[in-house]
Amino acid sequence: MAVAGLALSSTSNRALGAISAPPLLDSKGQRIPLGMDNFAVRAFGMKGRELVDYAASLRLDTLFITDIAAFGTQDLVILGELRRYAQDKGIAIQSGSWSVCPTSERFKKDWGTAEEHLALCIRMAKAVGSPVARVVLGSREDRKTPGGIQARIEDTVRVLKSQRSLAVDSGVKIAIENHAGDMTAVELVSLIEAAGSDYVGANLDSGNALWTLEDPLDSLEKLGPYAACTSLRDSAIWETDKGCKIQWTAMGEGGVVDLKAYFTRFAQLCPGVAVNIETIGGFALEFAYLEPGFWEVWNQKPAAEFARFLALVKRGRPVPQHDGGNKEMQKGELERSLRYCREIIGLGTKS
């Protein structure tokens, strides 16, 4: 089967379909949907129906399109047609976009003001039948901006509140991601509570938790009760002379995060929330927490929280780096992750 340049061998199809582990049930006794974030295979440049076809070929439950351009259109009528196309193939679409913090280093004016951008995200989510509109604040660079991350949180909250009525009337929950080292779990919870947890939740990202020097399990405990959607992957971590390096990996290939424990707790904390895989491999990023000045942009981190992070560092080992932009590398990491989630964890609703 070939989908938008992606060829699945019969061997791959058999492997992706084999479920060795018993189904993991959430706290409501339901199987946990399994899906993909389109960013995992970004090098292919697939849009709209191409992404739906690929997700269907993998027999997924959900397709998380987190980039407006990847829809191929902003026309609400055409997006409604995409929703029906996906439904016919058994795929539920979740949707999102990027920064809605007007003072973030990552904010773009491609979609107008921050308020206009968020409103567009909500309207598009409603059109494709998505219960969530995922957006982000920014990245770790925002911790260095005037006023630090707290000022950026306050700016984001103002934008969120401006679109509360639209979100509520549309039946769409705004999901803010812990993104690229911008906010710790505690900081993201403070943003959600300040805006209003009735219409704002979290897009839970396990890989990004490490970029704020948190054990993903610890981050899950804090963000799980607020989770509306996910973008998940595994990670490797190891010591360096300056601190540590972190490299995102396919599920089951990082070596330090106890994924069985993670998903057991996820099932308890996040009933009804799909697991969307967003693999972003290839590169290692150094966190020089032993160097002077590193902690200047961080609020005081609880000793127990940092100790749990350091425990991961101590038992980690380096992994090979590769070209993360390579199509086959991206495809391979995603499909190996889905296989692991099905066979080892017991995720997904389709046998």
Give the helix proportion (percent range).
Answer: 25-40%
Principal-axes geometry comes out as: globular
Helix segment count? 12
The figure for the number of domains is 1
What value does the average pLDDT take? 94
CATH level-3 fold name: TIM Barrel
Portion in strands: 15-25%
Q: What's the architecture in CATH terms?
A: Alpha-Beta Barrel
Number of strands: 13
Largest sheet: 8 strands, parallel
The strand order across the widest sheet is 9-8-7-6-5-4-3-12
- Oligomer description: single chain
Can you identify the CATH class? Alpha Beta
Structure class = alpha/beta
Residue windows where pLDDT falls under 50 for at least 5 positions:
1-5, 7-17
Q: What is the end-to-end distance?
A: 19 Å
Label this structure with key terms.
351 residues, 17% strand, 13 strands, TIM Barrel, alpha/beta, 12 helices, globular, eight-stranded parallel β-sheet, disordered N terminus, three-stranded antiparallel β-sheet
